[in-house]
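in:
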């Protein structure tokens, strides 16, 4: 496994090649869904407070988030 934790080449070979998923389906799947589609037990790691705080810092709510998505 690469240092970043995901071997994208292997995942794509399995998803697109062996499993025969269309590319749009492969890229739309969550890791959890992909694991289930392969018959694997997905990891059951809960999102801890620090992980949630990191997500909030990386993707803050704000006016810029709504650009182009406002109701008219």
């Amino acid at each position: 496994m690469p240092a970043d934790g995901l071997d994208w080449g292997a995942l794509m070979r399995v998803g697109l090649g062996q499993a025969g998923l269309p590319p749009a389906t492969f890229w739309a799947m969550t890791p959890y869904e992909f694991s289930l589609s392969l018959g694997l037990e997905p990891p059951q790691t809960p999102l801890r407070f620090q992980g949630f705080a990191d997500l909030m810092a990386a993707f803050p709510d704000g006016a810029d988030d709504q650009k182009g998505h406002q109701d008219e």
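note: Residues 8-18 form the longest helix (11 residues).
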